[in-house]
Design goal:
409 residues; six-stranded mixed β-sheet; 11 helices; 12 strands; 50% helix; elongated; transferase; Ser/Thr_kinase_AS; EC 2.3.2.27
Amino acid sequence: MANAEKLTRLQQKVARELGEAMGKAQEELILRREIEEGKAKEREIETMKNQIDQLMEKFQIFQERETSLKNQILELQMERDNAVKEAEELRYKQGECSSWNMPWFSEFSLLEIKEATQNFNESLKIGEGGYGNIYKGYLRQIEVAIKRLNPQSLHSSCGQGPSEFQMEVRVLSQLRHPNLVRLVGSCPEEFALIYEYLSNGSLEDRLRCRDKTPPLSWQTRICIATELCSVLVYLHSSKPHSIVHGDLKPSNILLDANFVSKLSDFGICRVLCHDQCSNNNTTLCRITIPKGTLAYVDPDFVETGVLTMKADVYSFGIILLQLLTNRPAISIANDVKSALGDGNLKALLDPSAGDWPIVVAQTLAELALPCCDRNRKNRPELGSDVWEVLESIMASSVASSSTQMGPKG
């Protein structure tokens, strides 16, 4: 009996030890599997890390190439601007100033204009202003924008319509610059002007995101400011006489498919002379009746009737501040000046443009405010004081950014 009990206890002990051994073996097997899985995951992570490193190296190479290409494009654009200016000066020296003999300028018949606009169909109207309505159409297989004089302007007491037509033809048919809208031709019998069609509308439209278009990035806004400065320097240094646009505002700055800006609407521009306003005959100016949109018009010009190149500088300063803040033109200079003084410029910047580099934004604001000085004598020279700063900012913004140079988002 005693032996049987011992045998039973022994069997139970063996069973327990066997169970414990099997449990430990099972745990060890699970642990080994986990270790193997962990090692496999480590190898997988290492492989992924190597792949990411390789991709980052390729991306870095791509960024460097993109930056190099953008710098090359910028240099080519500057060379192009200089070449255009030199060609223009040479053309004047050679006495080739007759616009009507230029191969890029054509006269169109009223019949052609009506066919292109489907008899001025309202569905083709893309804009309107004081001069008249603007229609989209095709003329001789070219997509164009056709600006037609309002019939009322022909019979108005001031008769500004025909004079604006003649001024626009005179200026745009003789001048060439990458940032001037191209005048394709005219229809004298209808007082219609035919321009290249620019698909991205006006700067005003894009700042307001009209038709739900995406906002302009801060890089694109810097490019627009630099291009506007470039074309103003070109106009102000035009030969044989300087030209003042006189009506600078966002609605007169058009954007092509690549968001390159083109200055338009030269109906009230003026040619400056040496003989009207200065005793020493060194100041280029003209005495005339102030015109334009009040918020952008030089207050000195409004008070005195003396128009100088500094009138465009004033308007340029207001537009530069709007590119920064997207705020209304009225009182914008005072608002930005106060924000700078309080060290709170960032709160005024347009957030839809993206993350403005604060140093760049501050430099632009400090560049724009002197342009908006009410006393024209205190305003900087665009060619020597403003252009170099903008050129440097644009070059650095292009070099430091791998984002698109069009709308944000």
